[in-house]
Amino acid sequence: MAAGGGTKAILAALCANLSIAAAKFVAWAFSGSSSMLAEAVHSLADSGNQALLLLGGKRAKRAATKEHPFGYGRERYVYAFLVSIVLFTVGGLFAVYEGYHKIEDPHEIDHWYWPVGVLVFAIIAETFSFRTAIKESNEVRGGQSWWQFIRRAKAPELPVVLLEDLGALVGLILALFGVSIALATGDGVWDGVGTVCIGVLLLIIAVILAVETKSLLLGEGASDADVAAIGAALVDGDAVTRVIHLKTLYLGPDELLVAAKIAVQHDDTAAEVARAIDAAEARVREAVPVARMIYLEPDIARAKTDT
Questions:
Q1: Same fold, 7-218 and 224-300
Q2: For the whole model, what pTM was predicted?
Q3: Domain coordinates in residue numbering, the chain
Q4: Which of 14, 137, 194, 221 could form a disulfide with 248 if both were Cys (CB 3.0 to 4.6 A apart)?
């Protein structure tokens, strides 16, 4: 995928989650641990989420049609939003329900070595998956902090995988904590408490993902730095004297729409204006490569209050 789509990170997470989900279901079947069941469903939901991200990336590559003249780039945002919904319902709400049920009707964990062994294995596998996501994210996040990267990234896949992997690791630690306390005390309530904590964690992550992908779905413009670069590239001081107004919109993670009204000399001929527009478009594409669709409206330079 383009624009930091993170295909490698998604595939690593998918392989890890499928193997972990199978192991967790086996451990739950032998031990009866609610934490193991919640974690198994969590891993299964994460596997479905990664499949959704891959599907969204594939469908977003479709060529523009008469019905969708700007293409299907935003479909990646749609599938990322679906991921947050799946994580919220299948992962978070199920874990809270299962944990509450276990607290209301606690029972001891059987065959303790199954859940403990699987959790240790899962922590190791998730660590490798998380490491892959961090490595790919570092290649595109630049000098941004991790929170800034999650908030500002236009390609949704890497932030989604990062938060999923982080949630999975913390959830596994919570599950191990709940199981360990339940085994040490002989009180199955702690297994339920750990399960509820996992559910709350997943709900928080799901809400963060939903808020961020909703913003992308509604349509976000270019960053301040890119807007400044586009504005500077449009003006050459000769044919184009200034930018009257400028608007940008991401049609997809790797395609930016630029619409601007530019001031040209009042005595330029139509041919000169056309050449100035072509040159301005070339400068913008060189300055900001994702600016692939550019519409420029020439106007006569007047007062600074032009709109």
A1: no
A2: 0.77
A3: 7-218, 224-300
A4: 221
Contacts of 185 (CB under 8 A, 6+ apart): none
Which amino acid makes up residue 204? I
Q: What is the DSSP letter of 228?
A: H
**Tell me: the pLDDT tens digits for 244-270?**
999 999 998 889 999 999 999 888 889
pLDDT mean over 202-224: 89
Which ranges in 105-223 belong to alpha helices (H)? 113-141, 146-152, 157-185, 189-218
* 151 Cβ contact partners less than 8 Å away, ≥ 6 residues apart: 212
Cβ proximity of 306 and 263 under 8 Å: yes
Structure tokens at 235: 């003006």
CA–CA gap between residue 197 and residue 27 (Å, rounded): 20
Do the strands 255-264 and 291-300 form a parallel or antiparallel pair, or are they unpaired? Answer: parallel
User: Would you call 295 helix, strand, or coil by DSSP?
Assistant: strand
Residues 6+ apart with CB under 8 A from 76: 1, 5, 53, 56, 57, 60, 155, 156, 157, 252, 253
Q: What is the pLDDT of residues 3-39, one digit of tens each?
A: 445 677 888 888 888 888 888 888 888 888 877 888 8
If one looks up domain 7-218 in CATH, what number appears? 1.20.1510.10
Distance of CA 28 to the CA centre of its chain: 30
User: Is 203:97 a contact under the CB 8 Å cutoff?
Assistant: no
Which tokens belong to 256? Answer: 């930016």
Query: Measured in whole angstroms, how far is the alpha carbon of residue 231 from the centre of its chain?
Result: 28
Helix (H) or strand (E) holding 15: helix 7-31
Dihedral over alpha carbons 181, 183, 186, 187 (to 10 degrees): 50
3-class secondary-structure state, position 169: helix
Mean pLDDT, the chain, rounded, equals 86
